[in-house]
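Sample 1 of the test manifest.
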Amino acid sequence: MDFQYLEHTADAEFIAYGHTVDEAFVNAARAMAGLVIDPAKVKPEVEKSVELSGDALDTLLYDWLSELLYIFEVDHIVYSRFQVHVTPHEGGYTLEARVWGESVSRHPDISMHIKAVTFHDLRFEKKDNIYEAQVLLDI
Amino acid sequence: MVAADKLKKISEDVWEIPTDYKPGMNVPGHIFLSDRLIEGLESGAIDQTANVATLPGIQRYSMAMPDVHIGYGFPIGGVAAFDTETGVISPGGVGFDINCGVRLLRSELMADDVKPHKVDLINALYEAVPSGLGSESKFRVNDAQLAEVFRTGARWAVENGYGVKADLEHCEENGEMKGADPAKVSKKARDRGRPQLGTLGSGNHFLEIQKVEKIYDEAVAKAFGLKEGQVTVMIHCGSRGAGHQICTDYVKTMEQASRKYGIKLYDRQLACAPLSSPEAKDYFAAMAAGANYAWANRQIISHWVREAFSKYYKRDVRMDLVYDVAHNVAKFEEHEVDGVKKALCVHRKGATRAFAPGRSEVPVAYRDVGQPVIIPGSMGSASYVLAGTQRGMELTFGSTCHGAGRVMSRSAALKDIRGNEVKRQLLERGIVVKAPKDAAIAEEAPEVYKEIDEVIAVVDGLGISKKVARLVPIAVAKG
């Protein structure tokens, strides 16, 4: 399973899984994108690069998803394909990613507005050799 | 009554969370709900109210207003006041949509003048004010102008031709929160804010043409310029992406600050810093800038609403601002605690300031009757105008609820409710709804909210604000 949505009375929450850190970060992005649109409908026409660094994987996850919300809102692009490479280094991690999508204007069926990523219930951990990324979004 | 079993009823409509509810609580929690409304209270909202009580320097109680529902960090409807020397400031206690708020314009028109034209009028408003997901403004501000918006709020709008000076006198903080520093707002927040000034947004934001259906207090209503049958326009929106990004940035800053200052957090979204710290000062300066953006936004929208009415009626239709209140904000205010006047930082997340008569913060025109408190309902349900009271100063640091409060999630509403059906039912009741798409109507349908009349009955019964007028919708433009 790549990700699953959790029941939440007010907002949107999910757990994304991965055999590697990179895969879990990709699946977290796919889970968030899936709340906005069916990714199968989005052509990967526009490409964008993302570079981030952080001292812990959970805060890097917060930054990664927040960055995707930012570029969605500023570039007016819905993103559906993600490639992530997280590298550990002394004192933290670096994330290099490429994302692909297309103009929001071609997708008038988008209805959900995600306001922000929250720290509530945020976790990134390895369980039985699988990485789990749990995220609650303010919608 | 699973959730209520955890609470102790200490007086009519007041429920206490004792300090032994969870380790670390510095003060009890107080939740204001009727016996009927407590049935729907989520356990998570009790936990969140208790979590707030663990924060350093909190005064008297962690509180939840009658529209309380689950959020993260603070519950929605949460109010907490912190000592300025020993307390903290928390972006999670303000929320992502900084100064999401509501304002009320009173018109010179009567309902009979408007009802035959309600479809044309709501279409005109919908055209005049960009709304919906990803909506962009009709005008562009450059970086220097945006900095002035962050610094001076509604004043920037009025000085640039979007409103009149009297509007500023009738805004909380005069629409210009002091201490704002655009330099503390990130590039990302500026990027998100620049194209969205003068937009309604989506979600629960709306423009509504209403009729004053009932007056409860003639004298106060007269002071507010309200009378039965009169047409009003209510505007509900906030700081858009600028506010969302400011909060996103500073929750992360505060996460690090909480560790630095050794503050134990029961929810990471409650990340905070001592009010005397540089992190707290930076956040307050950025939050105030976000609040000012929201006031400018509502001011610009008000101007377009006035223009749309005047253009439609082919004459200058007078529409004065009754008042503009903030919902998600932290403010420095003086309050009495155990008989001593103290400077406090009051956080209101999904709550409205409701100051008593005599307070210097209340506009001169209303100072004898108390601050106007504007409580929007949902599409199809009534909204209320109330006035702040001395009882509110004593019981809730001059705070009251901000709406009806959700009982159903947006995702559940989208699954269970059909927007076109809601639209049809409302039309049968004479209410026209205009929205970017039917889904926006479904997720804000009347049944996803508590009964506003019951919520207001608690507020009025407790005396934390007194009912002045009941307004009913004629036509709604949804974000």
